[in-house]
Amino acid sequence: MDFSVDSEIGKLRQVILHRPGNEMLRLTPQNKDHLLFDDVLWLERAQEEHDQFARVLTDRDIEVLYLSDLLAQTMEVPEAREYVLDRVVNENTNGPSAAEPLRALAQGLSGAKLAEVLIAGITKAELLQRTSCRTRSCWPPWTTTTCFCRLCPTTSSLGTRPAGSTTVYPSTR
Predict the structure, then answer these.
(1) How far apart are CA 31 and CA 89, in angstroms?
(2) Which of 24, 27, 92, 94 could form a Cys-Cys staple with 98, CB 3.0–4.6 A?
(3) Is the distance from CB of 40 to CB of 29 less than 8 angstroms?
(4) What is this structure's pTM?
(5) How far is CA 125 from CA 140, 153, 165, 170, in A?
C-alpha cells in the first residue's frame, strides 16, 4: 500500500485525528510552555470543538480515522507491541527504577488500554496503584524487607518510608 500527498489543493479523502483525552489533564500552568501550549485547555470544551471539526469533515465525505483506534489495533500485533515498547519503555527514557514495572504493566494491558497509556502517559502514583507487590518486588526499589507502597499486605502500619530513604523518580524525557 502506497501513501502519498500529491497536491496541496486536491480533495482531502482521509485524515487521521486525535480527540483530546486524559493527556490534557496532565497539562498544568507549570508545564504548558514546555509542551508548547499557549494555555491550559478545558478538556470538555476541547473535545466539543474537536467533535464539531470531525463532523464537518465527515459531512464532506472525508474519512476520519482516529489515532487512538489505529494505535490500539497496532498494539494488538505482538511484533508491533514489542517494537514500540522497546523504544518507549526502557531505562534511558523512564529511568532504571521505573522501566521494569512500566514494561510489566504495559505487557499486561489490552491494545486499547496500552494505546491510552502511550498517549496520555502514566504518573508514578497511577503506576503504584496499578502494580502490586504480591507478584514482584516492590517499586520503588528503596524498600528492602518491608513494602511501603500502601497497596501490598506487607505495608507497615504507618505506610512510611524507611528513615534516610529517597524517592526515585523516572525521567521526564
Answers:
(1) 22
(2) 94
(3) yes
(4) 0.70
(5) 11, 18, 18, 12
